[in-house]
Design a protein that fits this description.
Layout (H helix, E strand, L loop, with lengths): L3 H32 L8 H14 L3 E3 L2 E3 L5 H24 L7 H23 L15 E3 L2 E3 L1 H23 L1 H11 L1 H6 L4 H23 L9 H16 L4 H21 L5 H15 L14
Antiparallel strand pairs: 1-2, 3-4
Helix pairs in contact: 1-5, 1-6, 1-8, 1-9, 1-10, 2-3, 2-4, 2-8, 2-9, 3-8, 5-6, 6-8, 9-10, 9-11, 10-11
Length: 304
């Protein structure tokens, strides 16, 4: 039975979750456009900073089997984690991509898979296998408007995602760095001939992609518990979102993420929660059957 109040609440929470998929999907697209490979460690860039954050913010947490008591303020923790993950993004570029940049796409893809496996095992080694609850800035508070009840964390996710999308648009359209990133994505060889320092632009792209995953992880952690598997399903749905939107399209990644977030929420409520996680892949299959290039992808015709 249709419930208008419940539907509106589901749409808001679906848009929030869809924003997380969109941020992770943007990470996929940025690296794919820059170097022509899919980064299979993108989901672990959601998980690993979440573990780092709980280590800093909780009153006590077990690290390497020892109880630590740092308990930093949440905002300070967020800033510290983003600085650490920016440094990790540079390290990731230097280790996983740069030495293999002239050996084709397959070694780089295998390298990203290796990084993914390493991060998951490292997380289990440091923090163990027990789920950890991440605190929210808002505690257990909720916002009410008549019969409607919203989680403040959902509204925070929507706000931060909106700011990042506007920032990215402004970066690409109005700054020299953004235009160099676009030129590198379109044709690396030509960009290099024009004097663009391609290796530096690629490194910045890797850092930005890692930061998008880290921000997504910090935003979604208060909704879910922190586990070494938390990035896996998110990255799968984000990858599906990027294909639904048209792989390589930044607007497509955003729309695809939001679409999957809303539809899976409504489907879980009105059909069955048992099928909620499968809905993203049903949407993926349906879009590929109707429009294989995705919603915003370019149709490519082959010559006979």
């Amino acid at each position: 039975m249709f419930d208008p109040s419940a539907t509106l609440q589901l749409i808001v929470s679906g848009l929030a979750m869809g924003s997380i998929y969109a941020l992770v999907a943007l990470g996929f697209i940025l690296i794919y456009n820059a170097v022509g490979v899919v980064n299979f460690a993108q989901g672990d860039f959601v998980m690993f900073p979440s573990y780092i954050a709980v280590s800093f913010v909780l009153p006590s947490v077990i690290v390497f089997g020892t109880v630590v008591h740092w308990q930093l303020p949440l905002i300070a923790t967020y800033l510290l984690v983003l600085i650490l993950m920016a440094a990790f993004g540079l390290l990731f570029n230097r280790i996983a991509y740069y030495p293999l940049r002239d050996r084709g796409w397959l070694p780089v893809v295998i390298s990203t898979i290796g990084v993914s496996i390493f991060l998951r095992n490292l997380a289990q080694l440091i923090w163990g296998s027990q789920p950890i609850v991440f605190p929210s800035l808002f505690g257990d508070a909720s916002l009410s408007a008549g019969n409607l009840h919203f989680r403040p964390q959902d509204l925070l996710i929507l706000g931060v995602a909106g700011i990042l999308i506007v920032f990215q648009y402004g970066l690409f359209e109005w700054t020299s760095l953004g235009k160099q990133m676009r030129a590198t994505a379109q044709d690396r060889a030509t960009a290099q001939l024009l004097g663009i320092r391609v290796d530096r632009i690629v490194a910045i792209t890797f850092i930005y992609s890692v930061l998008l995953g880290a921000i997504a992880g910090l935003l979604v952690s208060p909704i879910f518990t922190v586990t070494k598997e938390m990035g896996g399903l998110i990255s799968l749905k984000a990858f599906a979102a990027s294909i639904v939107g048209g792989f390589g399209s930044i607007p497509g990644a955003i729309i695809g993420g939001l679409l999957i977030g809303v539809v899976e929420n409504l489907g879980g409520f009105y059909i069955s929660t048992a099928y909620k996680d499968a809905i993203a892949f049903v949407i993926l299959i349906a879009v590929l059957l109707i429009r294989p290039s995705g919603l915003f992808g370019e149709r490519v015709s082959e010559k006979a």
